[in-house]
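Input record (Table S2, row 283):
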Amino acid sequence: MIQLNDVRRDFRRPRTSLLKPAPVVHALRGITLDIATGERFGIVGESGCGKSTLLRIIAGLDRPTSGSVQVEGREISRLRESRLGFLRDQMQLVLQDPMSSLDPRMRVRDIVAEPLVAQGKPHPPERIAELLESVGLSADAAGRYPHQFSGGQRQRISIARALAPDPRILVADEPVSALDVSVRAQVLNLILEIVERLDLTLVFVSHDLSVVRHVCERVAVMRAGEVVEVGATDQVYEEPAHAYTRSLVAAIPHLADALAGRTAADLAAGAKMTTDRQELDRE
Ligand SMILES: Nc1ncnc2c1ncn2[C@@H]1O[C@H](COP(=O)(O)OP(=O)(O)OP(=O)(O)O)[C@@H](O)[C@H]1O
Ligand SMILES: [Mg+2]
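Output record (magnesium ion complex):
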């Protein structure tokens, strides 16, 4: 479904001196990956390792400096924006912070209809109602504004919007990182349920290995613009082959739980009981 071959992306930083060349950030240093149709594929790694850059390139929102990116056998890295229509139909994004990705002045019905409007497709009220119900919201949410919802509900609205054009691929960049721990598991389970029901391919980015383990069958571990390890999620967790993966595993407090076979749902249930997590999202 998605094939990346030696994808590189350099960013030029603003010049700090007239005498020196502009510094270059090598955000991606030769990424080669295959993501199969229907697969739930995770990408983990610490902040700044290039996860979002990679997702933007997969989604055709950014171009690699070199290398090839194929989606269903079509090279997208050098297509003009006007030729990327097929990708916009097939692939939709869910981002980290639903508050900043939802326009506060728009009603939910217009937010959800946005991708359909952009593609000049019909968006009757019944379709909007169906989409809202498919993410566990009631149809009368359509007339309200984003601030009238909790963080978890707002992320449900962005998921409904992503599903509107009937995509085949869902690309999610830290979709639960901005949410309270108590609702993370609910939103993750919703994503899982939708991906299964609609038979979607999922590309899921997170810095949190326990979250990726809950959702993904296969995972790539990134470090400083490179993939250091790819494999079945359980395998990568239980027997990390690369020293960096082992250090990631050791550094993440959840990981002791993840290694003990507990899932994000258990972790969230546990978190509910701790007093510093009393800000329960009212869902
Ligand atoms: N538009 C840009 N211009 C310059 N540098 C950039 C740009 N976008 C990303 N970078 C740099 O590329 C590197 C990778 O950034 P990226 O946002 O992909 O990391 P990330 O893994 O998503 O991090 P996080 O977990 O914090 O979201 C970083 O060093 C970042 O500063
Ligand atoms: Mg990022």
